[in-house]
Amino acid sequence: MARVTFLSVACLAALSGCGGSDEDVISKTFALSFAAKVGDRPFSCTDTFDGVGTTGSAVNALDFRMYVYDVRLVRGDGSEEPLALEQDGQWQRDKIAFLDFEDGTGSCETGSPETRTEVVGTAPAGDYVGVRFNVGLPPEMNHLDAATAPAPLNIPGMWWSWKGGYKFVRLDLISTMNPTYFFHLGGTKCEGTVSEGYSCAADNLADIRIDGVDPESSTIVFDIARFYAESDLDHQIDGETDRTSGCMSFEGDPECPPVFNALGMGFDGVNPSAAQTAFRVE
């Protein structure tokens, strides 16, 4: 459940000359709660989840982490209020936040025990009915060096290369027929140099809006079963036209369209077929 605290900033007439009719400005500190699930079951590195994807594959987790940025609270009239993120020096910096659902146990052998399932920040008091955010990193931050970048941009497992930039999402599974089945979301068709900078023809940033969210009590759920509902996790690659089990975001990958659609994103120049389905609210 999201936690919330209050911060009252009074208009001090003696210092600012404000009139007595001005109202106090009240801000709240919100901790937006996130969770990962497979259907109704909480994500876990020690459990097996049956019936995932078009072939009903049995899956185990290897990793699940993601970046989000530009988190906004949505009012009933559709207007948005940016959430000014807490600068904690570990999970959040500037307008980006890192979410980590794996805990390094069980099959998540390359993970770490620390998890992070909330985004914390302040916004003016108000009646909010939704949340909006981007999955990914701002383009100007996508090509830093994870070896020297500040937290949370210093995680080697979330970095591809100078040219590729960061992995915005890393969701790695074991399926019935594949010892590893990947989803690595990131920018592609990137060109440039370290000195001159990079730009990507496909930024691959997912713009997520979720209605019906009470930021004080709701949980935003990434549902892996819904994310892979139209995917065959037991698909066997041929080593020529398809070289990796799963989707690594590069053009022509036959396993990318259904998961891009689940994030409400187009792939390879084709518009998404519908709104995102991966995230839901509880």
Structure notes:
With 282 residues, this protein is mainly beta. It has helices spanning 13-16, 224-227, 256-262, and strands spanning 3-9, 25-38, 41-42, 48-52, 57-75, 80-82, 84-85, 92-93, 96-100, 118-124, 128-135, 159-161, 165-166, 169-174, 181-185, 188-193, 197-202, 206-211, 219-223, 246-247, 279-281. Strands 4, 5, 6, 8, 9, 11, 14, 15, 18 and 20 form a 10-stranded mixed sheet that branches. The protein is globular and about 60 Å long. Residues 7-23 have low confidence and may be disordered.
| Annotation field: number of helices | 3
Helix content: under 10%
What's the main sheet like? 10 strands, mixed
Low-confidence blocks of residues: 7-23
What is the arithmetic mean of pLDDT?
91
Radius of gyration from CA coordinates:
20 Å
Summary, kept brief:
By secondary structure, the protein is mainly beta.
Salient structural properties:
7-stranded mixed sheet; 10-stranded mixed sheet; 5% helix; 282 residues; mainly beta
SSE layout:
Elements: E1 3-9, H1 13-16, E2 25-38, E3 41-42, E4 48-52, E5 57-75, E6 80-82, E7 84-85, E8 92-93, E9 96-100, E10 118-124, E11 128-135, E12 159-161, E13 165-166, E14 169-174, E15 181-185, E16 188-193, E17 197-202, E18 206-211, E19 219-223, H2 224-227, E20 246-247, H3 256-262, E21 279-281
Parallel strand pairs: 2-19, 15-20
Antiparallel strand pairs: 1-2, 2-3, 2-10, 4-5, 5-6, 5-9, 5-11, 5-14, 7-10, 8-9, 11-18, 12-13, 14-15, 16-17, 19-21
